[in-house]
Amino acid sequence: QVQLRESGPRLVKPSETLSLTCNVAGDSMMDYYWNWVRQSAGTGLEWIGRIYSSGTTNYNPSLKGRVTMSAETWKNQFSLTLTSLTAADTGTYYCARTRGLTDGHFYYDMDVWGKGTTVIVSS
Amino acid sequence: YGLTQPPSVSVAPGQTARVTCGGSNVATKTVHWYQQKPGQAPVLVVYDEFDRPPGIPERFSGSSSGNTATLTISSVEAGDEADYYCQIWDRGRDLYVFGSGTTVTVL
Known about the structure:
The complex is a heterodimer. Chain A is mainly β. Helices cover 0% and strands 58% of the residues of chain A. Chain A has strands at residues 3-7, 11-12, 18-25, 33-39, 45-52, 57-59, 67-72, 77-82, 91-102, 105-113, 117-121. Chain A is globular, with a radius of gyration of 14 Å. In chain B, the strands form 2 sheets. In chain B, strands 1, 3, 4, 7, 8 and 9 form a 6-stranded mixed β-sheet that branches. The A-B interface holds A 35, 37, 44-47, 50, 58-61, 94, 96, 107-111, 113-116 and B 30, 32, 34, 36, 40-44, 47-48, 53, 85, 87-89, 93-101.
């Protein structure tokens, strides 16, 4: 059974860069899409972006070019970098899997999620 | 493209809860639903409009027509109390959109 675990700093200063990693256990990363989703306290879910195992990416344009994702499939992990942080970036960050093309069907849902990691942007 | 959900739905135990997700021609898109309990990560409860992942009770069902997708929870239990989010993949813009979320309260 695949499991995801996020890791990274809990506290980051404004204007600095956040780097988070999601470790994938129990399955290969190959042929799946890997997402980052965040949630500010008391608010809804916001999709940050996704990366395919080949390295192809899609990002939420609302983050205005501050996002970069990478995948290190040989390590079974993928990463998120978010620059120019402000207090508005404070929240819980989740990684999640999208199966994509599996058994002849294309799945767009996020079927496996990590438990999330809390990030606080504060000086 | 935006997805609109009612902020809250209240339902008595054993009754049926319906959570709506409004969007332009949403019935032409593939809608997924997630359940999120306090302090926990979201859990997929319905995908591809009406399919359920393994382990999700048959009480959870999805449907879609015109501009509204609906998550129906039958025979509601106290453990169903949670926030529910709809989601689509916007093919035109290559991005995921989540609904605003609905809090289901079991009276």
